[in-house]
Amino acid sequence: MELGQTVYILSRLILGALASFLAIMLWTRTRDLAWMLIIIGAIAAYVETIYAIMGLLGIVDSMPVMSILLPSVPTILIIAAFLVMVIRKYRRR
Question: What does the alpha-carbon distance between residue 31 and residue 86 come to, in Å, rounded to a whole number?
Fold first, then answer.
């Protein structure tokens, strides 16, 4: 494994862990559906990062379903959060 790839993996792991930690801290303080979906999306993104790195290192065999599903889940959750916010804003008018 070359240095660039090592730095890439470490940066994704460290930044993803920080984002997940902060998301979990925020989760205990909020009960808003839109924020909950964004928090779950951030945690799902970190799970996808860990799975991708494990596949890159040869620890896990990449299953086609997981390779398609895992990268899509965080985006779907964030879209759902934005949709909740849009519906909430237009319903008030």
Answer: 18
Question: How far apart are the C-alpha atoms of 55 and 30, rounded to whole Å?
Answer: 34
Task: State the total domains in the chain.
Answer: 1
User: 0.85 exceeded by the pTM?
Assistant: yes
Highest mean pLDDT among 12-16, 49-53, 62-66: 12-16
Of 55, 88, 83, 84, the C-alpha closest to 71 is 55
- Torsion, Cα 80 74 15 57, to 10 degrees, reads 180
Range of the domain at 43: 3-91
Q: What is the pLDDT of residues 14-37, one digit of tens each?
A: 999 999 999 999 988 888 999 999
Using CB atoms within 10 Å of the CB of residue 43, give its burial: 0 to 12 exposed, 13 to 18 middle, 19+ buried: buried
